[in-house]
Each structure stands twice: as structure tokens, then as C-alpha cells.
From TrEMBL:
Organism: Amycolatopsis bartoniae
Domain Gfo/Idh/MocA-like oxidoreductase N-terminal: from-to ranges: 5-116
SUPFAM superfamilies for the chain: Glyceraldehyde-3-phosphate dehydrogenase-like, C-terminal domain, NAD(P)-binding Rossmann-fold domains
Pfam families: GFO_IDH_MocA, GFO_IDH_MocA_C3
Identification of the protein by name: Dehydrogenase
Keyword Transport included in the entry's annotation: no
InterPro entries in alphabetical order: Gfo/Idh/MocA-like_OxRdtase_N, Gfo/Idh/MocA_oxidrdct_glycsds, GFO_IDH_MocA-like_dom, NAD(P)-bd_dom_sf
Alphabetized UniProt keyword annotations: Oxidoreductase
Domain GFO/IDH/MocA-like oxidoreductase: from-to ranges: 162-240
GO molecular function: nucleotide binding; oxidoreductase activity
Length: 296
């Protein structure tokens, strides 16, 4: 790009401070132009650390940027993002993209109508090893099943343990989008939820059916006192067993790779991507089906 993309950041919580703000400020294709948050003092702290301005209102932010990055709860994002895309702004969206399917569909329709670029923060998908692993699986084919575990104590202690929306939605809302996205990408589109159970301690056990006949399982909790967190995925079939060997990668490194794609999309006028708004809507529908089957 001849000029840096001016991006406004909505939100000033731990994830915005650790990932969004430094990523946008340091990337050669973007600049962190301005920050808006419901707590002005928090927005000012983030903005000052990265040489950005503070917007007094969301509308003020929209008037200064080419794109908007959201680091807010899904219920907040869903409405604001619709306003952003209607104003012609490209968007980087948190997962899940909305609190429910109806809101997600409204947001997706707005993005597609506005013909703006969109990427969802399925951050694991932007790691080099994940991309190479998925490419290899697709090239070989013949996978019959797989599974993923994500166990952490993130809601017991730490910077995200005081997040109301994470406590309300639990593991399914927070890490569920990553789990569903990776299993879907590895084994083919998820077509149904065969079984789903949530324990009183928010331990999820889920069985998915995939297009083409494969099946997979998911185990998730953010209330297990393990350090470091357990996060693994594997598939198996006629060519044996393949597990994704993940290395510890800071979130900002994966966000930088996302920004590479985001800037390239805008520079080339592209609005389609494996992790665009369409992907976000598909994952939202699967999560909703999980809740239905679990009776939650």
C-alpha cells in the first residue's frame, strides 16, 4: 500500500492493550489512528502508549479512519460494527461476531452489502504452522475423524477472569469459536451437532458431524486449574494420524499475520477470505446449534 491504513480501535481492555493496539501501531501497513472505549480514561491510556488520538464518541472515531478493529464483547460489537460498515469502513471483528445468530446475520448482511473487507479474529488460523497443517490435510484427504481439547483456568484467575461476557457465555462463547473453526477447517464443514453436554462447572463435551461423513469431538473448559493451558487438535483416517504441533506464539504475532492479509485485501479490493464475515456467521450458527442440542 502507498499509504498506511488508518485504523480506529474500539475497546481498551486487556486484549486490546496486549494485541490490537501494539499490532496496529507497529505494522508497516497500518497506523493506530484513534481509540474509543466506554471508559475514556482507559482509551486515553491505550492511545497515549501508541501515539494515537482519543475519540470522544464512536461517530468521531468513524470520521477519522479507513477501518475499525473491535476488541469488545459480542453484544457491543454487533451493533457498532453494522454502523461502521454502513459508513464504508473495513472491519476486524472479534469472535464470536455477535451474541446470537439473528444479530450475526444482520451484521453479515451489512458487511456484504457494503462490500467492505472483513476478517474475524480466529487467531490460530493465522499461525504459519496451522496454515501448513491444514494445507497438508487438504492435499492428502481421507480423514475420518478428529478431536480437539481446550482446557485452561482463564476464568479462575488472570486478566480475563473479570470479564462478565466470558463468565456468562463460558468456554463455548470464548474458546468455542476457535475449536469449531479448526475442526471445521480440518475435517470439512460441520453439518450437525450429534451430541452436546455442559456440566455445572462449564465443562463441554461435543460431537460434530462433518460434510463427507467425518466426525469429531470437542472438550472445552476455562475452569480447569492447568498451567500452561492444554490446547491440541488431531485428525485420523486412511493416511494415519496427524496432530498439529503448535509452538507458543504471542497473540500479537498472529495478529500481525492477520493484518498482513487485511492490508492486502484492501489494497487489492478483495472482500473474500477464509476467515471473513461468512466464516464468522457459519461458526455462529454451529455454536447456536450446540446450545440447542445441549438444552442450554
Amino acid at each position: 500500500m502507498d499509504e498506511q491504513l488508518r485504523v480506529g480501535l474500539v475497546g481498551a481492555g486487556p486484549w486490546a492493550r496486549r494485541v490490537h493496539a501494539p499490532g496496529l501501531a507497529d505494522h508497516p501497513g497500518t497506523s493506530l489512528a484513534t481509540v474509543w472505549a466506554r471508559r475514556p480514561e482507559a482509551a486515553a491510556e491505550v492511545a497515549e502508549a501508541h501515539g494515537a488520538s482519543v475519540s470522544a464518541t464512536f461517530d468521531e472515531l468513524l470520521g477519522q479512519v479507513d477501518a475499525v478493529a473491535f476488541a469488545v464483547p459480542p453484544a457491543v460489537q454487533a451493533g457498532l460494527a453494522v454502523d461502521a460498515v454502513k459508513a464504508g469502513k473495513h472491519v476486524i471483528l472479534e469472535k464470536p461476531i455477535a451474541p446470537d445468530v439473528e444479530s450475526a446475520e444482520r451484521l453479515a448482511e451489512a458487511v456484504l452489502t457494503a462490500e467492505v473487507a472483513s476478517l474475524v479474529m480466529f487467531t490460530l488460523r493465522y499461525a504459519v504452522e496451522t496454515r501448513e497443517w491444514l494445507d497438508d490435510l487438504a492435499a492428502v484427504g481421507g480423514w475420518a475423524g478428529g478431536g480437539m481439547r481446550w482446557l485452561s483456568g482463564a476464568l479462575l484467575d488472570g486478566p480475563y477472569s473479570v470479564s462478565p461476557w466470558r463468565h456468562d457465555g463460558g468456554a463455548l462463547a470464548d474458546v468455542g469459536p476457535h475449536v469449531v473453526d479448526l475442526l471445521d477447517a480440518a475435517l470439512g464443514p460441520i453439518t450437525d451437532v450429534v451430541a452436546a453436554h455442559r456440566s455445572p462447572q462449564d465443562l463441554w463435551q461435543i460431537v460434530f458431524a462433518h460434510e463427507g461423513g467425518a466426525s469429531s469431538t470437542a472438550t472445552m473448559s476455562m475452569r480447569v486449574p492447568v498451567e500452561p493451558a492444554v490446547s491440541d487438535i488431531s485428525v485420523y483416517g486412511e493416511h494415519g494420524y496427524r496432530a498439529l504441533a503448535r509452538r507458543p506464539v504471542p497473540g500479537v504475532e498472529r495478529f500481525t499475520a492477520l493484518l498482513d492479509d487485511f492490508a492486502a485485501m484492501i489494497a487489492t479490493g478483495t472482500t473474500t477470505h477464509p476467515c471473513d464475515i461468512r466464516r464468522g456467521l457459519h461458526i455462529q450458527r454451529v455454536l447456536d446449534r450446540v446450545l440447542q442440542v445441549a438444552g442450554a
